[in-house]
Write a structure and sequence with these properties.
By secondary structure, the protein is mainly α. The protein contains 3 helices and no strands.
């Protein structure tokens, strides 16, 4: 994959991520604050993942939890 193709793929991925984040924000008008303790190792892993996905760490944690809930609901139906 050449540099231009890689850049196009990254831009497309970023657009999909931004669309998902806009969708999440539109669905939720009020946010709840939750104190959370994580090990340094887990924090580092989530931080690296968030950077790859162009999200904040908080946004990444919310994304992970949202996906887990969606998968759980899908298995029950």
């Amino acid at each position: 994959m050449g540099p231009e193709e890689r850049e196009q793929a990254l831009r497309a991925r970023l657009e999909r991520i931004e669309a998902l984040e806009r969708e999440l924000k539109a669905k939720e008008s009020a946010k709840k604050q939750v104190p959370l303790r994580l090990s340094a190792t887990l924090w580092s892993e989530i931080a690296a993942w968030a950077e790859e996905d162009f999200r904040s760490i908080n946004g990444q944690i919310e994304f992970i939890l949202t996906e887990a809930v969606r998968r759980r609901k899908g298995k029950k139906e």
